[in-house]
Amino acid sequence: MSNFGHIGLNVSDVSRSQQFYQQVFGFDVIKESTDANQRFVLLGEDGKAVVTLWQQSTGTFKKDTPGLHHLAFWVDDIDAVEHLEQRLRDMKVNFLYDGVVAHSEGAKSGGIFFEDPDGIRLEIFSPDSGEHHEAPESGAACGLF
Does domain 69-145 have CATH number 3.10.180.10? Predict the structure, then answer.
């Protein structure tokens, strides 16, 4: 098995998170429930779910508990990464590093690392042109933080 289906994320406010993921990635609503006891929305593209947002948590993401480390989205080229970086800056999103960083010193791949409204760590990366950017720290690898 080599293909991934979709990812499900617990969020504290499904409407806020839906707006964020749609604004950043342009996802369409595939399916949603507005039942107050079971709020969720499946977001995706071309009828295929990519992210399901489940409103069943409080607080913010904690990296010191087992579970998701970060969620990475692949784009075709570094220009797409830089375009999305500007969109995120306009949205005043919290970045974990300043701008595009290489996955490791001299790596071809690189991207941006930031947080969604619940503090879930996200990455947008390209497999090419990362070598034109510095790694955030010596010996860094994808997963950086």
Answer: yes
Q: Round to whole Å and give the CA distance between 54 and 5.
A: 16
C-alpha R_g of the chain: 16
Surface-to-core class of residue 36, CB atoms within 10 Å of its CB (0-12 exposed, 13-18 middle, 19+ buried)? exposed
| Pair 97, 113: CB distance under 8 Å | yes
pLDDT digits (tens, 9 = 90+) for 49-95: 999 999 998 988 888 888 888 899 999 988 999 999 999 999 999 99
Q: At what angle do helices 14-25 and 78-90 cross, to 10 degrees?
A: 140
The model's pTM: 0.85
Does the fold of domain 69-145 match that of domain 1-56? yes
Q: How many residues are given for the chain? A: 145
Could you tell me which CATH number the domain at 1-56 has?
A: 3.10.180.10
> Where do the structural domains in the chain lie, given as residue ranges?
1-56, 69-145
Structure tokens of 83?
């375009």
Task: Give the list of residues 6+ apart from residue 125 with CB closer than 8 angstroms, or none.
Answer: 72, 73, 74, 75, 81, 103, 109, 110, 111, 112, 142
